[in-house]
Design goal:
The protein has helices spanning 2-27, 36-56, 60-80, 96-124. The chain is mainly α. The chain crosses the membrane at residues 36-56, 63-80, 100-118.
């Protein structure tokens, strides 16, 4: 039960981050920003693909991909908060999209690590995850 709850939380984090990036790309003009615009679209697609993989393939690899996705996306956002920004884009952590992005990406990392741990424990116990 705990494993499934963690799996669902990881999937929600992935889909939440994907939605934030797609919405910014499609509705907030990010599609017009060179480099960042295409990366936002890639992020949206990758979040959905990894979420599906976490749901259907109960292996450590898609969970690790979810953790990497969350860490890379959150890391890129943190770089965008610096004076130099990221590829010329500087954020300020004031919009709801920024806050939801941080929450969902942190969720990918935290719940992903917890899911990896529970999968490992259950495998050692001989229980299918």
């Amino acid at each position: 039960m705990v494993t499934w709850l963690l799996r669902i939380l990881v999937v929600l984090g992935l889909l939440g981050s994907a939605w934030v990036h797609y919405n910014l790309w499609a509705n907030e003009g990010f599609d017009q920003i060179s480099t960042i615009g295409p990366l936002f679209l890639v992020n949206a697609v990758a979040g959905v693909v990894i979420a599906l993989a976490v749901l259907v393939w109960h292996h450590w690899l898609p969970v690790l991909a979810a953790i990497g996705f969350g860490a890379a996306t959150l890391g890129a956002y943190l770089i965008s908060l610096t004076p130099g920004g990221l590829f010329g884009v500087r954020e300020q952590f004031v919009t709801a999209a920024e806050k939801w992005g941080v929450i969902t990406e942190a969720g990918c990392i935290v719940f992903g690590i917890a899911l990896l741990f529970t999968q490992r424990v259950r495998r050692k116990q001989g229980v299918l995850v």
